[in-house]
Write a structure and sequence with these properties.
This protein has helices spanning about 15-30, 50-65, 75-80, 90-105, 115-125, 125-135, 160-165, 210, and strands spanning about 5-10, 35-40, 70, 140, 145, 180-185, 195, 200-205, 215-220, 225-235, 235-240. It is an alpha/beta fold. The chain has one domain: Purple Acid Phosphatase, chain A, domain 2. A six-stranded mixed β-sheet has the order 3-2-1-9-10-11. It has a five-stranded mixed β-sheet with strand order 4-5-6-8-7, with no helix packed on it. The longest helix is centred in the middle third of the chain and has 18 residues, at about 90-105. It is globular.
């Protein structure tokens, strides 16, 4: 039986140097298997290096066929700006949620209008614009559903709202019954700040902008086999591997 590897990566939030460590480690382990990468969104905001983080996501998706970006709520703010759909009120909210750092990373924080930003980014970073416009809301496999935030457990997977897929917490995180598929998600930082596994969901937002830790879940033939987390502490790269129960493995 052929081995199909899927790698889901949690929230990045502009912590590009840690994403680089994580991707290098994952590629050293799995590149020969031609894995599919699923980025679970929130590539940008809060951290200071959204532009290089987007560069890495773009190149990874280009290099590994079948790889995709699931749009996060933070990514959606930039997409709406690019589409001319961001209201003044929403822009103020975005700036408070880390949009300032993103615009600074792209060197457009002094631009006067959204149109100026859009024209500039379409000219100098067309691949980023294309990535955001091609991002999906959900990826389904036979056993798993990959989303940014979660789902509304009271509704079927084919009838979810975009808002819930990108924002939901209450009613999802505390839901203990099985759902149509096991949900693989980010958005909500896990209490342990490391990957967590439940009977109905797999949580891999390990607090990138707060902890400096970005995590990935590894699936072989649609079965969870473990996790890899990366962080940089005092200039030293630290990579931690976990088994399928999110228990750390010996180095």
């Amino acid at each position: 039986m052929s081995k199909e590897i899927t790698i889901a990566i949690g929230d990045i939030h502009g912590i590009a140097w840690v994403l680089e460590v994580l991707l290098q480690n994952l590629e050293s382990r799995y590149a020969a298997d031609k894995p599919r990468f699923i980025f679970l969104g929130d590539v940008i905001d809060r951290g200071e290096h959204s532009l290089p983080a987007m560069n890495m996501v773009c190149s990874t998706i280009e290099n590994y066929p079948g790889s995709v970006l699931v749009l996060g709520n933070h990514d959606e703010y930039l997409l709406r700006l690019l589409k001319g759909e961001l209201s003044d009120d929403d822009q103020r909210i975005w700036m408070m949620l880390g949009g300032v750092e993103t615009l600074q990373s792209y060197a457009v924080d002094d631009f006067k209008t959204d149109d100026e930003i859009r024209v500039f980014l379409e000219r100098v970073r067309p691949e980023h614009v294309a990535l955001l416009k091609s991002a999906v809301s959900m990826v389904l496999s036979p056993r798993h559903c990959f989303v940014h935030a979660g789902i509304d457990p009271t509704r079927p997977l084919n009838d979810q709202s975009e808002k819930d897929l990108r924002y939901i917490r209450k009613g999802f995180l505390d839901h203990t019954e099985m759902m149509e598929r096991v949900i693989v998600h980010g958005h909500s930082i896990t209490p342990s700040e490391r990957p967590e596994v439940f009977n109905n969901r797999i949580a891999i937002d390990t607090g990138s902008y707060r902890t400096g830790r970005i995590s990935a879940a590894i699936f072989e033939n649609d079965i969870l086999t473990g996790f890899v987390s990366a962080e940089v502490v005092d200039g030293t790269s630290i990579v931690t591997t976990y088994d399928a129960h999110a228990e750390p493995l010996a180095a």
